Amino acid sequence: xxxxxILRKLSKFDLGLDDRRVFIxxxxxxxxxxxxxxxxxxxxxxxxxxWRGASEGNISAKLESSIIKNKGVHCVxxxxxxxxxxxxxxxxxxxxxxxxxxxxxxxxxxxxFDDRYxxxxxxxxx
Length: 126
Hints:
Elements: H1 2-10, E1 22-28, E2 32-42, E3 45-54, H2 59-70, H3 76-85, E4 91-97, H4 102-111, E5 119-124
Antiparallel strand pairs: 1-2, 1-5, 2-3, 3-4
């Protein structure tokens, strides 16, 4: 039920994903986490990097700490990508069409966690 609630709520938001160079989704449960990093590579395509594994602490906290410490000095998209690239076995998909909305962008990653309690966080970057 939690997953359907999250997806229903996501379908109500216009996040302007086609206008963003970078956006991120984190999904976290008690012992497992996933981070998906979306980077625009052309006007109609993205590269998507994903990592999933045992929770390495709070992934959202790592991203948020990096963003706050940056204070607008460096590109937070690049700093966030560096955090993801520090994890082992990051998978990358290239030439992915830009999703039409948030539900299309994030539903596969969220549904991969079955129907249990989870936290999903969307970061709208540059």
